[in-house]
Target: Malic enzyme
Amino acid sequence: MPNFSNQIRASSSLMKRLKQRMTNPAAIMQATRHFTTLEGHRPTIVHKRSLDILHDPWFNKGTAFSMTERDRLDLRGLLPPNVMTSEQQIQRFTADLKRLEVQARDGPSDPYALAKWRILNRLHDRNETMYYQVLIANIEEYAPIVYTPTVGLVCQNYSGLFRRPRGMYFSAEDRGEMMSMVYNWPAEQVDMIVVTDGSRILGLGDLGVQGIGIAIGKLDLYVAAAGINPQRVLPVMIDVGTNNEKLLKDPLYLGLQEHRLDGDEYIAVIDEFMEAVFTRWPHVIVQFEDFQSKWAFKLLQRYRNTYRMFNDDVQGTAGVAIAGLLGAVRAQGRPMIDFPKQKIVVAGAGSAGIGVLNAARKTMARMLGNNESAFESAGRQFWVVDAKGLITEERENIDPEALPFARKVKEASRQGLREGASLAEVVREVKPDVLLGLSAVGGLFSKEVLEALKGSTSTRPAIFAMSNPTKNAECTPEDAFSIVGDNILFASGSPFQDVDLGNGHIGHCNQGNNMYLFPGIGLGTLLSGSRIISDGMLQAAAECLAAYMAEDEVLNGIIYPSTSRIRDITKEVAAAVVKEAIKEDLAEGYREMDARELQKLSQEEIVEYVKNNMWSPDYPTLMATMESLIGLVNRIQKACTVLGDYGGGDNAFSSLWEALPSVAVVGGQSSGKSSVLESIVGRDFLPRGSGIVTRRPLVLQLHKTEDGSQEYAEFLHLPKRRFSDFVVNLTLIDLPGLTKVAVEGQPESIVQDIEMMVRAYVEKPNCIILAISPANQDIATSDAIKLAREVDPSGDRTFGVLTKLDLMDKGTNALDVLEGRSYRLQHPWVGIVNRSQADINKNVDMIVARRKEREYFATNPDYGHLSNKMGSEYLAKLLSKHLESAIRARIPSITSLINKTIDELESEMEHLGRPIAVDAGAQLYTILELCRAFDKVFKEHLDGGRPGGDRIYGVFDNQLPAALRKLPFDRHLSLQNVRRVVSEADGYQPHLIAPEQGYRRLIESSLNYFRGPAEASADAVGPLCLKRACQKVNCRNSVPMLLRSVRALIFNLKQELRRFPSLQAALAAAANEALERFREESKKTVLRLVDMESSYLTASTGSG
Model:
């Protein structure tokens, strides 16, 4: 009986919730249905329907929702009846875009590019998948809209363009709160963060909080170019104020209207942000963007060896520039190894300029032997000019970052130059191979400078006008080609049109955009699992980009690829980064691909691995998996388990367990049944390999947790191994393969033993049978079909599955079976194409396998007309629909049984008292309720309203005073004992000051004398009141549990406080304030004790 009572207590609240869910079966089937889709490469549970789906940009498909989805998601009637393909949607949007560009302009001063941005942003707000479809399909046209140069206009006008939040804002006013703030972001996993403080947006200066636009634009390119999942990216603005006086006076400005933090205060804000995001998402990658030069290098050096982060302005720009510089060497018809011979004049010594100089010097030094003399030699190839002219060692207050590139005075003199020489003078005297602009000063390469470059000693001088946006470019390609000559190389940071040179010749304008590298760096770091982003990984990315162009393209003046090839470029760059991370032993792996598996991959396999992990904006198929019903079934199973009901036997509740459905695959050995089960789940989990033969059922059971932790599934025969990367619904059973004869080493009874084992499962009325038959074998001899017809003659529970369709003899097919002309079943046959053993050995993703399966049916001439009713995905839909009907039919009987059980439980609970609640809030409420009841009962006793008051008065009037009188205070507080305690406090070494430790011991030991009588009094009075108080709140027999709950509550509170440092500090301050109030009284007491011992202290220390 005690055991049964414990079971009832553990399951009572569960059963009540079941009763509530069972009250309205229709509501169960409709109100909270969830749908599973493939979000990129992983399943996502959708908890919305009807208009909520249409208002969610991630799940909204607009007119592309199929009629089946409209029915299942309650969308019928909420959309026009015509179902459109994604291609038709894009065509319609593009046509509207061309028409609306003019209408979307906000007056004549609003440029067309900004109008396009407005329209694209509205699409992003309502249909995210389609937005990325449009962006990827038209990346050449729209990359300049979502990124530079238009993003500069967006940032300048962001306060007026802001409509809905996108990203997170951390401000100087949030100091102490960031650790808790990061938990406001809904995504459980974030792979990529782009963060800015708005201090140097492109070449536009301090734009404050409006700089969030650059972070949003960058992440759009991470998604479009690198295939980073858009649900796992986070744009961040750190608002530490602004020094832009116009924004400080603008009443519509959205940010903090105060001057920027500086020094240690600024660093403290960034430190807190970094600690917060890496605490919640330890594997996130953070890209710093458009921080002013003053902080860009300092923050990079501060964090790069601790966190997975990089600075795109310093390292990304440098990588793209290095790739262009190496391409320029190739365009001269020389090998890249000649790069250290190039003379380079650099205009601009900000974060981007210094970043390029450092990277170029390292590249040259590596080619020259990578030693100290190589670095010194490489440094002599650069001439750096800033706003004050040529930088030499004579420069006062020189930036420490620029110091390594300052020319020696004698070297400059030999060249005919001096400190502060103008850019035109430097170009004229140095005669460089490359003129590199990173100054953010539009038109800096004036006619005088370009004329001077005509004297270059190079056969093909290169001009890099890399500053963004377009208006900040150092020169235009037209000026460059017309002044310097047709044979130059030209590259820019912002896009320009090619120049018609006449006579059929084209002056190519190469866009050296950072988007060629930063998406690949981020993706490669993510997939390698590298702990940091090393210089070697960045160098590998740059060299990969430099080698990407074909030789004939480079000789023709094309050193950067077209942005239309951006996904392929990113794939190659990411593969190079992964390979370098492996080489440097930094790779730790990603998801199933651990470091050891990564090391085994060839170059081609690394590229394939990267490709398979790139997200694509395909509309997911929303498949009903009856999530609410699955939760219900699992709660019923949990209740059955608590009650000791495991099905079968004479258990009083066995009918409840037996009513729950399961899915079992039945087939001969090597029929592909395990593969079918895995395809339905969408995940590898079953054992396989040469010589593996299942000899007992493998049961995979979902465990739904109710404490907010992640769900998991496990085999019943492997209870300690949890699978948590996917959700398996209901019970799935992979039964042993049926066999006709025993093989060598097996007992003769094996054939019958296996059949009886299989029968024990499939004979149960709650078992749905997947009868697996290989299409390349005679179905007439199929043991699976034969057994299914015996145990399920009506065919209600049987689904026929034809596997290995792709392995049938040439010229044959299975159309007679699939179209129902032979071996007809009540449910239609479904054809499956199993994964090949080669794909399994290569760990080909299940999503890729499903895609191949769809392509097979769609392109096969025999099965093309049936393609929408074939494949593992369709089989999963069919099973879901059948399970829904099966559970719906069982609801009335389950409801009746649960109601009866609950009535019995409630009757038992009246005797036992209800248990203490599980969650902390309910526990606290119970404790407070108990305290109030105790107080009320105690007063009733004392006031005579309840018997027992005399007993309480007797305890405190007689029993307690008598006990106190017996305490030996006279002996304990005697002068001799006080002297002993005080002198021993410091090891018999008394000091002139009062030994507080001794007095503390004296007081504590005195208080201990009170403990015994006080506890005895409480024991005498407490039970009298507590018993009645527990009866009042109905929690008898729960006091020990209550006390444990109090301790747990305090512990949990301490854990929670870690997330709220400000609250923690406030509590500490309040505690200190409370202690301060007692300080004076304590001080007086101590002084009195000192006075008592003054003679002793004086006498004892006088001799010292």
